Amino acid sequence: MNRLSPAAHSPGHPLHPSAPAAPAGVVPARVPADRAPEARALLTRDAAVVLTGHENTPDALFVAAAHLFGSRLRELFPHRVRTSRDGDPVHLHADSLDVVVDVGGVLSRRRGPDEDHVLIQCVRPAPSGGDSFAVDAYGFVDDLASTDPALLDFLTGTDVDLYGEWAGLRGLSATPRVGRHVEYTRTGRRIVRRTGGAAPLHRDPDTEHVRAMLVRFHEAVHRLEPSLPRFRLAEGDILVLDNYRCWHGRDAHNGERTARILTLRTADAH
């Protein structure tokens, strides 16, 4: 993986004493599909890797997951296909949702809040635009200690309803999922969350402060995006990400672009 330091940002709104010091952007190494041990080592080290040479089929995602994680796989969620036409940008995020559906009287989990890895296969690249970008979220959080300690305190010390903004989504649990943006698993693995669903807890006396800090977080992340290095996925390529550590997004594009997405949970997710 190449890590390229973005250019410095100018100071923002007075609410933001200074923009984050710009953690290095992530450009994942490309590894052939038949070199799973090498890909596994790079994913562990860099939090991202691109697998090349897989067939452009849904099965390829599951094969890649099996080769990468082996007996450490605990749960595979149904893969999903995303097609966009003349698509808007997708901002930096980590995949996370909590969706359970009833199939013939049997509850079935379609998405899990503890998804710790995501695989994204390029089915059809856009004719123009649509390049990917990623950032090491650990670096983002660590830089806040010097650039915006108040935001760091919020992300590490304030409980929010992680999916409260999506409360009307069918299948989403009616019970609030309470957590912090930065937490640790019981084995010491750090989680840095980034979703569009976070909201203040019901009747939180600090609701206005929480809303202001969520906006501050949103704006700080968006300021990173223009200067991050871009990389392009070719047809069939599979981008694999440590979903607890690496945020990803893509540029706007012209024409049609299609991707397959598989999220999963490993033995390291709790």
UniProtKB/TrEMBL annotation:
Keyword annotations of the record: Antibiotic biosynthesis, Iron, Oxidoreductase
Cofactor(s) the protein requires to work: Fe(2+)
Domain TauD/TfdA-like: 25-257
Coiled-coil features, chain-numbered ranges: none
Transmembrane segments: none
Keyword Oxidoreductase: yes
Segments for region (Disordered): 1-25
PANTHER family (alphabetical): GAMMA-BUTYROBETAINE HYDROXYLASE-RELATED, TAUD_TFDA-LIKE DOMAIN-CONTAINING PROTEIN
Name of the protein in question: TauD/TfdA-like domain-containing protein
Organism expressing this protein natively: Streptomyces enissocaesilis
